[in-house]
Amino acid sequence: MSYRDPIEPELLQAISLEAPRALIHRFADLVRESGTEAEWTAAREVASHLRKWGVPYTVHEPLLYLSVPEEASLEILEPESGTLRAKTPSFSVSTDGRPLRARVVYVSSGHGTAADTFDAPLDTAADVQGRIVLTEGFPSPQKVLTIQQRGASGIVFIHPGEEIHEMICTTIWGAPDLDSLPRKPSVPVVSVNRPDGDRLIRHAQDGALEVALHTRLREGWMRCPVVVAEIRGMEEPEVFLLAHGHIDSWHVGIGDNATGDAALLELARVFWTNRNHLRRTFRVAWWAGHSTGRYAGSTWYADTHALDLVQNCIAHMNIDSPGCRWATEYEDISWMPEAEAFAQAAIRDATGKPSFGERAHRAGDWSFNNLGLSGFFMLFSTMPKPLLEEKGYYPVGGCGANIAWHTEGDTLEVFDEANLARDLRAYATAVVRALNAPVHPLDFRATIRELRETLTTYQEAAGPHFDFSQALREADTLHGALDRFYAHAAELVSRPVSNPAVRAANHTLRRIGRQLVTLNFARADRFRHDPAVPVPPLPDLAPARQLASADPDMKGFIQAHLVRGQNRVIWTLRAAAQIAGGLE
Fold first, then answer.
1. Three-state SS annotation for 490-542
2. 82 Cβ contact list (under 8 Å, min separation 6)
3. Does position 100 have pLDDT exceeding 80, yes or no?
4. Maximum distance among all Cα pairs of the chain, rounded to whole angstroms
5. pLDDT tens digits, residue range 129-147?
6. How would you list the strands of the sheet with 210-223, edge to edge?
7. Scanning 10, 164, 193, 381, which has the fewest C-beta atoms within 10 Å of its C-beta?
8. What is the fold of 8-62+224-436?
9. Architecture in CATH for domain 68-220
């Protein structure tokens, strides 16, 4: 049975919508674009509530590197003339009055299906050199990078509905450094809606379409607010849970993310009021630069406070798009395997509802994977799938699955008070259990089971061309060491958090997590950031899926890659086993 804290009933009873409601209605008048006075106004609103309640907080003022879209259009030159409404994503190249003119080639990306508006595969057969590529879906970083690398001069994306969603197209996570700077997009990108896109496809398939792309963006270093509140624990104050969400928005962004900002604010109030019951510290952060900086605010924080995070953070909990209309179910929630049982129990116990999750996406201010922090939640409550089908909605990345996401339509109508109150109960339950459980509620045996399944899948794909048996043996050895560790930890659950044996066990858990999270979710080293593209399980070994079908030369390259990748896996699993066994 999962840990339940005695104070949970009192905490849940204390939740109120008074402050959340006031903040959401105030934000309904603020276009909280990063780097603007409206974003600073939003930060001051949050800070004023914290100050009124006496919650300790800091308003940081980092310089963040942002790309802010200002205007865009698509001009048809042949076979007819006219100008279509368009939007340009953050980090597109700005044409600045010198439009890009070129012929258009259509590259299919699953047109006619709504299965994957973000990362559907592209047709790789078309010659796109020097052409403007027309394709379906959102301008995801991976698509833009792929098309750019194939020599296209520009890209037009067709969004799946009547509206055009605001997006960001760079693979660079946070501020560029000298290693990632060369990956900045080098072509102009625009998006159009589905009706206009269908018309463009017909012309392109006839081979007669020539267009001009107009884009204007404001790019550079901008000073932004990052608000961080800290409610110190009574027994182990240096150890903390980080709850976070973004304060900036596209347009007024009620479902994404005014409701999340309000949820964070109410959690800060409730836990400050009950601070004498907290064993560890609760840290609450509102990020800038989410929408126009590829998570620039959370990345700045991860960089600036990296050593503290690595040493002392139990886990991070992302809050984005709770409390939206029609969002009655808990499906497609992000969590790492070691946090799954804990997160599901918190949701079930607080709401009476089951929850279903998935591997955490490389998105949503999860800027802590390389540091090795366990994480849970990103998007939260969502519309039930039959209702999505009934409404004809396609997948989006927030707003409880409302397709107002990232559009001018994300206004007060998207907010649902009852759903936010229910979501707050689940969040508060997760927070108090993470802070007060004598032993951190992270089960890394679940992580090893997932890693073992991944290794088995890769072995089946590679067949006789590569042998993962040594990595599998090391995974089994680590699982045995973890069984022994958790058996010992079970004897500590009645002791206080400040007990030296309890502190030592939790320190061990955090150290194990720093090993296994990076192994499963990162390619780059601990103090860098992987690109904003999908990261497969055990990414160093993922090329095993291509091994059997590769030509002889490529097979050799893949095998060399896998030898090095398996070395990392084995070394990391051994290190984790030594930590679990108290041998370091």
1. HCCCCCCCCCHHHHHHHHHHHHHHHHHHHHHHCCCCCCCCCCCCCCCCCHHHC
2. 75, 76
3. yes
4. 77
5. 999 999 999 999 999 999 9
6. 82-85, 63-78, 210-223, 100-106, 132-136, 154-158, 189-192
7. 10
8. Aminopeptidase (3.40.630)
9. 3-Layer(bba) Sandwich (3.50)
